[in-house]
Amino acid sequence: MTTDHTSPATTAPRRADRPPTLTEDLVTRLARRVTAAPDAAQVTKTAPYSGAELTDLPISTPADVDTAFVRARAAQKRWAATSFAERKRVVLRFHDLLLERRNEALDLMQAESGKTRRDAFLEVTDIAICSRYYARSAAGLLSPKRRRGAIPLLTHTTELRHPKGVVAVISPWNYPLSMAAGDTIPALMAGNSVVQKPDTQTALTALWAMDLMYQAGLPADVWQMVVGRGSSIGDTLMDNADYMMFTGSTASGRRIARDAGERLIGASLELGGKNAMLVLDDADIDRAADGAINACFPSTGQLCVSMERLYVAESVRAEFVSAFVERTRKLQLGGAYDFSRDVGSLTTPAQLETVTAHVDDAVAKGATVLAGGRPRPDLGPLFYEPTILTDVTPDMTLYTHETFGPVVSIYPFDDIDDAIARADATPYGLNASVWTRDGAKGRAVAARLHAGTVNVNDAYAAAWGSIDSPMGGMGDSGLGRRHGAEGILKYTEAQTVAQQRITGFTPPAGISYDTWATGLTTALKIMKRLGIR
């Protein structure tokens, strides 16, 4: 493992341990964007790279959440009355500001999450793509649509789309820009307002995105931000929301789905995963080994769609493992506000505890460590080496449980049917990856896997970046979809307006019901013969 002991991660913790763009003025302005009382209690956030104090943020109470919804509901009526052209103008201006001020965004994400600049930059790219797509697609996706009427020529039917109202967005800490802005942009373009609760650890990034949207011209109060623990303000969010968008754990997602069902509101949930990558016997080994690096260790493995299980054809197992281990051992681990590092820090002490416990448990029960396998306190309090394990058995915790860290297990297979069955032997179904030189075979294998997205010769970016296509999980990985048409239609209520001309399904005056029924029966038979739907 290559390290750099002169990186900022090795300096003594201090209050001033911030990147240059993260000034006191900026932090203060963002903190004021939180909907909270002037005398609100404060929560102290620390920087993962060093453990130094980063900033204090006000904590929202249930009453503050109620206030946010009152403001957002009033603002939503005005926002929904604006044209698609005006909403498009705001979101495209946000797109431009995001790219102009990318370094500010990168510094914030690194300071709060501990990820590398490379991983942070992918979030900027993601939100630029998302902004452009929904700004330019919303009008077409949501415009009135003519639908086939009940009686050809006599029934004029139109499908309309109305905004839900106020959408609650609960976003996680691991991808603070992508999850905060990516789920909000289509909700705004659909004419909704948003009340969002980001994870406290990375709330500054979410607040920065919201602040940028206001600078782009979003009217006051359309996007509100509250900060606090779910146990404190989660129920109030649910009680007020017209729709719930949640990204997080499966356990929390179940509770939200239950509560949304009680209120008869919709919910979209992206939850956990135990994603599998299959390396087939005809795979390009160098490409697959490079792909495995990108599949397993982005954002230090704290990515819902990253891979934790690698199934490798026995005929190429030794060659692949050698190439993958060699590349993993060369990764540069450390904290730096530039593009020099390959792998950054874990984000929270809880994640370090989980990763350490999973690896230690596996090793104690007979797993073999091929690379990594230990924390690196010499670099910072939350660093852990990218880790590859073999000989992992079902009695080990990480065999079935999501680790959500830089840890992957390798399993050999001889038969593709067996590999697919083992890859699917999980309650989760979020993402998967297939590596082969034969694209047609790869797509055929992909279609058999129980996962919401499957990438052939890519880890996750191909499917995630194909924003015109839906993304989401099966089974315990959630319900609903983001991206594509579904990613914005879910934030709307469908309404059918049907106008009947001349006559309908009851006989006109002067015609008996028996005669009418006979005539209508004949018409239905003719329509079937003519191929009319």
Distance between the ends: 64 Å
* Alpha-beta content class: alpha/beta
As a percent range, the share of strand residues is 15-25%
What is the average per-residue confidence, as pLDDT, rounded to a whole number?
95
Helix proportion range: 40-55%
What are the SSEs and their pairings?
Layout: E1 2-3, H1 24-31, E2 42-46, E3 53-58, H2 62-80, H3 84-100, H4 102-113, H5 117-142, E4 145-147, E5 155-163, E6 166-171, H6 178-182, H7 184-189, E7 193-198, H8 203-215, E8 223-225, H9 230-240, E9 243-247, H10 250-263, E10 266-270, E11 275-279, H11 285-296, E12 307-313, H12 314-329, E13 332-333, H13 349-364, E14 368-371, E15 387-390, E16 407-413, H14 416-423, E17 428-429, E18 431-435, H15 439-448, E19 453-456, H16 461-465, E20 474-475, E21 478-479, H17 486-489, E22 492-500, H18 513-529
Parallel strand pairs: 1-13, 6-7, 6-9, 7-8, 9-10, 11-12, 11-18, 12-16, 15-16, 18-19
Antiparallel strand pairs: 2-3, 4-5, 5-22, 10-21, 14-15, 17-20
Structural features, described:
This protein has 533 residues and is an alpha/beta fold. 41% of the residues lie in helices and 19% in strands. It is built from 18 helices and 22 strands. It has helices at 24-31, 62-80, 84-100, 102-113, 117-142, 178-182, 184-189, 203-215, 230-240, 250-263, 285-296, 314-329, 349-364, 416-423, 439-448, 461-465, 486-489, 513-529, and strands at 2-3, 42-46, 53-58, 145-147, 155-163, 166-171, 193-198, 223-225, 243-247, 266-270, 275-279, 307-313, 332-333, 368-371, 387-390, 407-413, 428-429, 431-435, 453-456, 474-475, 478-479, 492-500. The strands form six sheets. Strands 14-15-16-12-11-18-19 form a seven-stranded mixed β-sheet, sandwiched between helices. Strands 8-7-6-9-10-21 form a six-stranded mixed β-sheet, sandwiched between helices. Helix 10 links the parallel strand 9 and strand 10. Helix 4 (102-113) runs antiparallel to helix 8 (203-215). Mean pLDDT is 95; it is low at 1-16.
